[in-house]
Structures are given as structure tokens and as C-alpha cells.
Amino acid sequence: MRSFKNPGGWMKGAQALALAVAVCFSLGATDAGSRFNDLGHRLMCTCGCAQLLGECNHVGCTESGRERGELSDGISSGKNDKEILASFSAKYGATVLAAPTTKGFDLVAWVAPFAVFAAALLGTILLIRRWIASPAGKAQATKFADSANQDPETKALREKIRRETGSDGGF
Fold first, then answer.
1. What does the CA dihedral 75, 77, 81, 85 come to, rounded to 10 degrees?
2. Which of 56, 65, 111, 123 could form an SS bridge with 51, CB 3.0 to 4.6 Å?
3. Which residues contact 15 (CB under 8 A, 6 or more apart)?
4. What is the residue extent of each domain of the chain?
């Protein structure tokens, strides 16, 4: 049976595994076809069909063929991904990008959903705390406390009602 006292061996094995996974995922990353596919899914078709450029398949699309040609020309001319996306954005406007950038005002599109969720959560917590602290909430708590300190005659009557109706009757 092996001893697990040598953590260095485990660390080296984990590093080798991570390296192997990284190499496997990066094998096709520089291939022109995979770049075309990746960039085609990061751009929108400008014909108004609201589809990604790489998936625009409606009959009679006048834009997707031309845009795919421009994308292919950009890849074959040696431009990097940022340059290609910037040239499409400059030519067709920011709406050609499938996702907003993370700079300037576009950053709001990434931050706003989390901010709205946090504000809603905070509002819910404050509302519940206010309900608990309200006079109605205190009266409800007093009602439950008083029901525990009732005389035996009232308790017996309530128990009889529960037995006969099969419910607590809201008491």
C-alpha cells in the first residue's frame, strides 16, 4: 500500500495534469477555421435577423456573406482578434458585437444585473425587518405569547374546538 506522506508528488502530478489539459484545449486555438468560428460567434449579423454572424442562416440574407468574407479576409491578413472586432465595430457600430465591451459605459451592462439583485435583496431584508419591528408584528408576537399563558378553562375549550373541527381554527 502506498504512503500519502509525500505532498510534493501529488503536486507535481496535479501540475502535469493541468498542463496536459491546457495543451489539449489550446491545440486548435490558432487554426484559422476555429478563429473564424470563434469570431463569427462574437459578432452579430447586421441584416436585422438578430442572429450571430456564424449562425445566420435565413434565406436571402444580403449581409452575412459579405461580413463573413470580411471576417475571413481579416483573419488571413494576420490581424489579431481585437483588431478584427474593432474594425467591425468601427464599420457597423457597437451593435455588431454580440456582447458589450468591458470599458466605459458598456461596463454598466455587466454590472447592472448584479447591482439590481443586491438592491432587491437588501430591500427585502429591510422590509422583513420592518415588518417584524412594526406594531402589528409585535401584536402578533404578543398574541402568541398570551396564548401560552391562558387559563386552563380556555385551553380546554380550544382543545375541544381543535378535536371537533380537525384544525386549529386560526387560534
1. -90
2. 56
3. none
4. 7-99, 107-165
Distance CA 35, CA 26 (A): 12
Q: What whole-number distance in Å separates Cα of residue 141 and Cα of residue 96?
A: 58
Rounded-to-integer distance, Cα 49 and Cα 56, Å:
8
Q: Which residues of the chain have pLDDT under 70?
A: 1-11, 21-30, 137-149, 167-171
Helix, strand, or coil (residue 42): coil
| DSSP string covering 70-110 | HHHHHHHTT--HHHHHHHHHHHH-GGGBSS--SSGGGHHHH
Architecture of domain 7-99: Orthogonal Bundle (1.10)
Tell me the whole-structure pTM to 2 decimals: 0.48
